[in-house]
Amino acid sequence: MTDACFKSLEINLTIFRAVRGPIQATYQTRLPDELVPFAERMSLLMSDVERHLYQDLKAGWALKDLKREYQLRFGINARQFDSVHSVLKGKIRSRKECHKLQIKELKSRISDLKKWIKLFDPRPITFYRFLGTVRIAS
User: Fold this and answer.
1) pLDDT digits (tens, 9 = 90+) for 11-36
2) Is the pLDDT of residue 69 over 60?
3) Domain residue extents for the chain
4) Fewer CB within a 10 Å sphere, N or C end of the chain?
């Protein structure tokens, strides 16, 4: 096969070490053209499975029942289902952590704004639209 028959594929891999935390590496390979449609269809299938699994878990369905149903419905095996479930759990955990950080950041910004507002005159400001001026109430 010639180089023209290959397409580039990039894989991000995270390896977790017990002592010092994760190592992240990116590997790049080339796939033969005939494998590219298969890889694209598999990625669409797995993202579809993940989306439906999220909705069903959120609705309160038992994981054991979903596993059997998804194997029949999507034509995947138990290992693929477990992989999708593991990725989904990680995404949910990550989103919760990001949400906590966002709340903390917003609280900090609110307190900073409150301090900034106190620097100005604490008297209420009255707006007169019809005059186009701002007057500080006494």
Assistant:
1) 555 555 555 666 666 677 777 888 88
2) yes
3) 3-136
4) C
